[in-house]
Every structure is written in C-alpha cells, then in structure tokens.
Amino acid sequence: MIRKLVIATLLAAGVALSGSVLAQAQATQSAPASAAAPAAASSAPSKATDKATRKADKAAKKAASQAEKAKRQSAKQAAKAAKQVAKANRQKAKAALPPNPKKSHKKATTTSAPAPAKAPASAPASSSSAGV
Length: 132
Known about the structure:
By secondary structure, the chain is an all-alpha fold.
C-alpha cells in the first residue's frame, strides 16, 4: 500500500512537472516579443513546479519513514517470536530431563536409631570426673 502511494505521488508530481515544462517551452516559443511576459509566465509554472516537487518530496519522506517504522516493528515482532520459541525449547528440554535426586532440598530420613543427644554447650567438656 505504501508503494502504491509513493508511485501515485511520484506519478502525479511527474505529470505536473512535465506539464509545467511543456507549458514553459510553449510560452518561450510563442511570446518572445516582450521581456515582462515571459518572466511572468515562467514564474507561475515555476511556483507550481516547486510546489509539486515539495509535495512529492514530503510524500516520499513520509512513505520512507512509514516503511522504516514497519521494518522496525516487523524486526521487533520477529525477535519476540524467536524469544518465545527459545523459551518453549528450554521448557521442553527441562521437562525432558529426569529429576536429579542429588539436588533434593529434603533431608534423607533413615530408619535406624536416632542420633545420640548432644551435651549442652554450657557444660564443661570433661564432666566425667566426679569429686576430684
């Protein structure tokens, strides 16, 4: 759609430009007698040409900026899609791995006798000698 707009704008500017050039050429061939008449005739097509040129340039710049914006958006969407695909692949790979028993946060329970109770920290280390 942007291409069609640019083509139509450039075509319209080209038609306006060629029409003013033809009018300018006919004006110089048909009325070389007076110096004031060709100057007035050449200024009117010149203004139209300048206006058409400015309008075409403005439309071309706008179309170029819209194309650049569309390009950035498509690149952004492609990056986002690639990121989602990578995330899905990581999740699939993680789900496919067997659970690692070494990384369990739970303590292993044993069915053997419980561990002996430790002496309190405030008691002396050699309290077995009584009355010495």
